[in-house]
Structure formats: C-alpha cells, structure tokens
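Our collaborator T.R. sent over the components below with a one-line note: 'Predict the complex.' Nothing else. No constraints on interfaces, no templates requested, no preferences about which chain binds where. So this is a plain run: every listed entity goes in together, and whatever single assembly comes back becomes the starting point for the next discussion.
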Amino acid sequence: MDNLTLLTYLFVGASFALYIGIAIWARAGSTKDFYVAGGGVHPVTNGIATAADWMSAASFISMAGLIANMGYGGGLFLMGWTGGYVILALLLAPYLRKFGKFTVPQFIGDRFYSSSASTVAVICLLVASITYVIGQMTGVGVTFSRFLGVSNEMGIYIGMGIVFAYAVFGGMKGITYTQVAQYAVLISAYTVPAVFISLTLTGMPLPQLGLGSNLAGTDVALLERLNQVVTDLGFNEYTTSVPGSTLNMFVYTVSLMIGTAGLPHVIIRFFTVPKVADARSSAGWALVFIAILYTTAPAVAAMAKYNLHATVNHAAATGGDVFAPEASLVYEERPDWMKRWERTGLLRWEDKNGDGRIQYYGPNAGAKAEAAGWKGNELTVNADIMVLANPEIALLPNWVIALVAAGGVAAALSTAAGLLLAISSAVSHDLVKNVFVPDMSEKGELMTGKISMAIAILFAGWLGLNPPGFAAGTVALAFGIAASSLFPAIMMGIFSKKMNKEGAIAGMIAGLSVTLFYVFAHKGIFFVPGTAFTDLIGGPNSFFGITPEAFGTVGAIVNFTVAVIVLAITKPAPDHIQHMVDSVRVPRGAKAVDGTHAH
Amino acid sequence: MDHNAEGYWKATLALIWKVMIVWFLVSLGAGILFAPMLNNIHLGGYPLGFWFAQQGSIYVFIACIFYYAKKMGEIDREFDVHEE
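Returned assembly:
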C-alpha cells in the first residue's frame, strides 16, 4: 500500500470513528429526540448542521466543475442555492417553528384540515427526497472507488453501515451532532486546497480575494487572462457566458431559490431550535457556514480551469500564441495526475491529428485551429475533476488529497442522513401514525421511526447500487418538485388566512403535474429512455426557451394561480383554522415541538 | 384579530417587503438583469456584474437575514408578542 492510500484510509477511518463515537453518545430516547433532536439545539449549532445537511456530494464534488464549464452562468447555482435561505428565513422557518410540530406534511395536513392534503404533501416529499438521496448514495460510492480503490458497491455498503449506526439509533439527535463533525471535515477539505491554489496563482491566500486579483508577478487580472485564454481557444468568454437565455437563467435561479426553501429535509432542521427567534437567526448562521464553501467554489472553478489550460497549453500561461505547434503539451510529457485520472475515465485523450500533442479547444476556434492543423478537440474532461484532482494539479501534499477524500464522503453522508430522516419521519409520523395507527404509543412510534429509517437506508442503498439511468438529472427534479408543490402550499398556509383545502390541494397537484409533464417531455416518462415526447410540446425548451431544470418557477406560478382561482369559487378556510394562522404569525406562546395531530 | 395583532402583522409584512426587495436587487437584479451593464465597472479584477452573481449576492443575503432577525426582534418587543 503506498503512502497516499495509507493516508486516505487513515483520514477516512478517523472521520468514521468520530461519527460512530457521536452515534453512541447521542442516542434517541424519545420521539422528540428522534424527530427534532430534543428541540433544544443552539441556533449556531443548528446552522452548522444545516450547512452540512445542505451541502451534498453535488455541492462538494460537482459544483465547482459546473461553474468552471459554465463560467458566469454558473452563478445561478450559487445565487439559487443560497438565496433560498433568505426566503426560508423570512417566509417559512419562523412560522413553521411556531406551529411546533414534527414534520412538513403535518403542517400542511393541519393547516388545510385535511388528511388528503397531508398525503399529497407526503407524496411530494417522498418523490423529492428519494430522487435527491440517489445522488448521495452514488456520490459515496464514487468517492470511495476513486480514492480508496475499493469497488463502488463496497463503498455504498460501508456508507450505509455508517449512516445506519447514527441515524437509526440517534435519529435527528445523532444526525445533528454528526453533521457538525461532518461540516468540519468537509469545509477544511474544501478550503485548504483552495487557499494553496489561490496563494500559488495570485499570492493572495483568501480565494474570494484571489479570484479578483492579478496573477502573481504580473499586472494582469486572473479573470482577464482567463477570458483571453478561453476566447483564444474558442470557448465562450468566462465572465459573461449565459446558459440559454437571460430569461432562462432568471427562472432557473428562482426555481433553485424557492426549491431550496421548500425542501423538507432543510425545513425540519429549523424545528430543532428552542425559540421562534432562534429559527430566524439560525437560518442566517446556516448561510454563513454555507457561504464559506459557496464563495470559495467560484475561485476553485476559475483557478482550476486556468491551471488546466496552462498545463495542456504552454502559451496559455505566458500569453503567447496558443495555436503555435510547440505550445500544445506533448502527451508523453503529461503530469502524473493526468495519468491517474485517465485510469478512472474522467479524463480522456484522443490524438485526432496524430501529432502526439494534446489540443484542448472549443467550438468557436474555427479557421485558426484548422490553419494550425488541428482536427478537433482531443481532451474530454469530466467536470468533477476540478475538485477531485485539484490538489494534485496544484502539487499539494498527499495529506491534502486524503483530506479531500474524507470531505467528499462527509458531504454525501451528511446530506443522505438528513434526507433519510425526512423520509422516515414522513412515513412513521404522517403515514403510519396519522393515517393507519392513530392510537400508537410514544414508544411504538419511536420504534416505527427507527424501523422506517432502517428500511429507508436499505432502499436508498439499493437505489445507489442500481441507479436508474437518469441519476444525474434527478437532483434538479427534486428542486422542481419542492418549488412547484410544497413551497407554494406552505407559503399560502401562512400568508393567506382564507386559503382552503380545496385551493391548496388543487394547487399542489396542478403545480406538480405541469412540472412533471414538462420534465418528462424532455427526459422520458418517469425517465424511461425513449418515452420523451418533446415533439408533442413543440420541441425542446419550447416554453419561452426555458429548460426543464428551470421549470419549477413556472410550476409554482401555476400552483399559486390554480389555488387562488379554486379559493374564489369555494368556501374560505373555517374560523378555527384562521385563528390557528393568527397564532402561527406571532412568536409568543411558542411551545416545545410535539407530534399531536389536530384532526 | 385585535388591533395589536393587526399592527404587528402589518409591521412584519413591511419588513419582509423591504428585505425581499434588497434580496431581489442584488441577485436577480445586479447578478442577472443588470449584469451586462455592471460588467463595465470593475471591482479589483472582478467585473461587477460577475462579482454580484458569484460573490456579492451571497454576502448581501447573509446581511439580509441577520438584519431581518434583528428588526423582527424589535417588532416583537414593540408589539409585546416576544417570547419569554
């Protein structure tokens, strides 16, 4: 076993030992422990746990790569996935905390005085959370196989075992305190390489400042040089390229924002704090801890992209002619990290013009590339490399690489655990207890919760082992569902006293249906390949050029509109419900969270 | 709804509107709609529109939430509906 593998085992093993230790310490003794960690979590602690809950394998491994590919347009992920916390803090979290129950479907069920409303909410929650959890389980497998050399399957089994240890026995309590530890691991794994790289490239240790600085030893700004290099090589200008149209970027950002605010696994974290005022500030703390990664990511993206170009084209770094024959890197002289990542298939080279050199360029290079005798782009780079191989590209020591491995696993496990809790509490509390066995004892419900959690873990593991072919596209779907179904229902439940069950249910079903219809039109009915029906809706992105990932905003507008129309032709919510909304709106009288059902 | 509760809710909504306008202006506004225009201005090596989209909006979001939390605390006490 070489030094790097040994260090990686050591880092990942030590982090696992820590999680298990916390699991033993934080066992759940009551349903209150299991669902809301006892309800006494400090707002800053909850902020850290929320940050770990939120930042998934996708945030950790894939986001910087996505931004590197998209340039300026990648900002939609940054703004969307952070701006949602403002909505959550202002419009949802404090009121749901005041309502004081264990789950999101329970709020919808009680507020709209209807088990049907609650059941529709459970379905939306399950679809959103399960699609989301698939990505986490595959993320665990991917990280394990790339860093530890074990198989994908083995990685998923190990991940399941660890989550089992603290989520089944500890519930929300175990998950909360493990997430604090996981945050520490993932944030250091993300920022340490970024600081080194920023320092090397710009002489500025803070990546957030480095991205806006000049390249070390020159008076050229990093972003200016990057723009120059990528446009020379026929890619779109880095600081201005927009995905699709400005309208699409706009609605995509809005979809991610309201989807973030409507995701149940995030909302339930705010049920764990003692007071309504804590729910407000805790959202701020969550965003502080999220922002540390989210403001570093764009620096990682731009710097890794620059480093990659500088590696394969000598002229990119010096400002010379990138089309000169000797500027392209000779394949046999490529650095070790390229060899290592070629083996994983994330990096591929094909010598199209047979000169033994790597030509990496974009679609707009046209005549210049032809004149240089280039026969097409020769290098295929998987976006995940920007984070995974970053420490190697920047020649950082092996312990940093090992740390990144532990960080990737921490990011995937912490999000998976939060999602699994949202899933299992919806099943044990909103389905089993509310619909099937209303007179279940506290002890019985705790046991049901633990069993649901165990089943959810096995199910998620199975999905991770047999990922449906569409795994990559599903996380976007989770946001679309949360944005078009749950967010409008919760918001109207708080801000419209008159909104009734007919309006809310019709709205949720309409919003969800129109979003699924548009997504399925592009990606196939339930993602079954070959069943897409884009022709039927007039071609891809036919609705004002909006992509299916961005469609949650439209779904939300449909939801609101249908709900308001139905409300106008039916009787408004009864008086006792309107009084309930009045009491939800004021902080005084906030009780400890409990699980009593109102109907 | 008594007079006090009505006043409290009005004050709350006014604050929410105020903060949401800032939220909109820095992200969907400066980060997307006005970004091409703002890119003519530079903040160090950052074109300003790009900076809002990938850095600035996030910092302002944090300020928005803490400002809101502080002001809500004041409104709670003013209308005497704060938690004990």
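Summary for T.R.: Chain B has a mean pLDDT of 93.
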